[in-house]
Structure formats: C-alpha cells, structure tokens
Amino acid sequence: MALVNVALATPSGRDGSPDLAKLEELALHLAGSRDEKGARMLDGLVVSGTTGGNFDYTLEQNIAVLDRVGALRREGKIPANVRLIAGVGWDTTDGAKALIDAATKAGYDEVMLRPPTGNMSAQDLFTSYYRPLISHSPLPVYVYNIPQKTGFELPFKVLALIGEDAGLRGNTAGIKDSSPDFKERFRVYATKFPWLSVYCGNDTLMLSALEGFHADDIFFKAAGVTSGMANMFLPVVHELARSVENGNTRGALRMQHTLQEAIDSTRPHEISFMAALCRFGPGQGPTLSTSRLDDVGMERCVARIASIGDADVRKLVVRCLTDLPFESTWKKRLMDLSPLETLQIEPPNNRTRTTRKA
C-alpha cells in the first residue's frame, strides 16, 4: 500500500449482486482523479474489502469483483503506479486461499487479510488461519484489524507469532487498523512491532496518524491511510495528506474538519448514502451490498449537509458529491443546494447548527 488508498465501494444491482459495470465506472473515476496541479489523488485501491461488501457477497461474487478491477489494470485503464490491494477475508481458510489465488491471477500487487469472525484464541487464529494463508500467498500480505466487523480486536499475540517466523515476517508488509482505539494500538505497534508498516483505516483519525506522535519516547506515524469516505471525498483526503507532507498544519486541520463534517452529515449511513447518490433515485431499493437507506434517511442526510455552517466546507462537500460519475435524483437534489436557501434543519447529533445562506 502507499500513502492514500481508497477502500473501493462495490455498487449493487436491485437483486443485491455486484453491479460490475458501475464498479468499473467508480474505479476508473477514482483512479483517474487528479488535483489542480495534475497530480493523481490516490496511490492505491483496496478492492473487495469490508467497504466493498466482502461480508455481503458470495465467494464467487467476491472473485468476480476482484477480476473485474484487475482487468482494468491488465487493459491499461488503471495505471501500474496505482497499487491494487485485494481485500481477502473469509470465515474458512480454504475460502480465503481461493481469494488470494484469484487476486494473484488477476494481477494484484498485495492482499489485505482480515481475520474470520467468531471467537478463537490467538494461538488458534495464528495456527489455523494466518500461518497457512501468509505462507500460501505469493503476494505481500497486510494484516487487518477491524473489530467493528469481526467482533474482536486482532490479538497482538498473533503479530508476535508472525514476527517469530522469518518466512511469515518477510511476507507480511504491514497492518491496516480501523479500530476506534487506533492511537493506543499505534503505541503498541511502535514499541513492540516496529517492523510493521501501519496504515490508518479510521477516517476520523487520519490527521493524527499522518502527523504522528510520540509513544514511549519513540516518534511514530502512519505509513498511509485507507479511506472508505474517499469514495465520495477523495479530494479532501488527498489534500489532507498533501498538506501534512508540505507541513501545512492549518490546511490539514481544515481538511480533517471537512471530512468530519461529511461523516457527521451522513452517519450512520455513510456508504449507503454514497451508493444511493450514485445509483438510485427515491424509493428504488438497495444500493451498496445489502445496505439500504430509505427516502427519509436520504433526505435527512441531504438536510444535514445543507446545515453545515461553514459555507466553504459545505460547498466542498457538495462539490465532491456532485462530481461523482453517476446521475440520480439525489445528485440533482444536492446540486439544488447551490445557491443554498435557508432551511429548517434538525441538527445532527443534537449539535446546535446555524443555517445560513451561501
């Protein structure tokens, strides 16, 4: 993985299966996004990960998603300098091996290996899952901690056991951590596992991770970020990372604030909101994987965006959303927010917001 990676969302058809044509459209849109200086906005795409609906699709459907995006690389539509990382996670070792094999055949650069769900001891998790899969993979492996989906924090003992085996350690490139306790886990990575490259998968903590901090007298910062919100707000995530690189603390703070406003406005339906915006108009059913967001929920999200008090932040949020490469009734609804008229809005998360004209 590299500095800015997008956890690619997978659009679904009305029957809940992956819409591979829309997937291709979104992948090309993201991979081709450039800033005002012509620089590419992302460095990598994580395909068929948790944001991409890995939990919601069958093994065959996940393989089809991996192959479709891999084909874009093989056809030269996604350049070689955009890393392709395959999201690999299954509740059986054999299923995970099949995904690794599919990613290798499709031309991916790396795999990101989430743990299976359910209760397992650290030793059993290592012995029955991580050791055979890391040994099996011809591609570098990133371990993945996402307790929001698996139901548990990846035990540090698993990393210690990987580190004790020279072969496994040599094929383990790093870890992506999406835990709410990211900072505390970062401290442990810094002091106990300095050989790991660490990527932040929590959109609310990206600035802290990229700027770095001291842990037990060791300065430590993330090697990069992997963002689900970047499906909608890639310019914001890109500018945040660029500001950190350039020492522009004020600019980085503003981009993290913008990203937080976007998260607050669409929570808890961030990805469903994006999918509804991209594919369907009112009342037209499922959008991303098996998630649903009804008309009332969509209207509430739009209203919350309209209530963002900082006019510049609000305009940037709306611009990112309306620049997405799909047409829908909801996209038109957002475009109608400019110029913004005064609205009576329910403040998100019980916060007091002042509504103002643009």
Secondary structure elements and their pairing?
Blueprint: E1 4-7, H1 20-31, E2 44-47, H2 59-74, E3 83-88, H3 93-106, E4 110-113, H4 122-136, E5 141-145, H5 147-150, H6 156-164, H7 166-170, E6 172-177, H8 182-192, E7 197-200, H9 206-211, E8 213-215, E9 218-220, E10 224-227, H10 230-245, H11 249-266, H12 270-279, H13 295-306, H14 311-322, H15 329-335
Parallel strand pairs: 1-2, 1-10, 2-3, 3-4, 4-5, 5-6, 6-7, 7-10
Antiparallel strand pairs: 8-9
Helix pairs in contact: 1-2, 2-3, 3-4, 4-6, 10-11, 10-14, 11-13, 11-14, 14-15
Oligomer: single chain
User: Helical region count?
Assistant: 15
Give the second-level CATH assignment, the architecture of the largest domain: Alpha-Beta Barrel
Number of strands: 10
* SSE class: alpha/beta
User: Hey, roughly how much beta strand do the residues contain?
Assistant: 5-15%
- How is the biggest beta sheet arranged? 8 strands, parallel, barrel
Number of domains: 2
Q: Return the CATH topology of the largest domain.
A: TIM Barrel
Low-confidence stretches: 279-291, 340-358
What's the Cα radius of gyration?
Answer: 20 Å
> How are helices and strands ordered from N to C?
EHEHEHEHEHHHEHEHEEEHHHHHH
What percentage of residues falls in helices of 4 or more residues?
Answer: 40-55%
Shape: globular
What strand line-up does the widest sheet have? 1-2-3-4-5-6-7-10
Distance between the termini: 39 Å
The CATH homologous superfamily of the largest domain is named Aldolase class I
Question: Briefly, what CATH class of the largest domain?
Answer: Alpha Beta
Which whole number gives the mean pLDDT?
A: 84
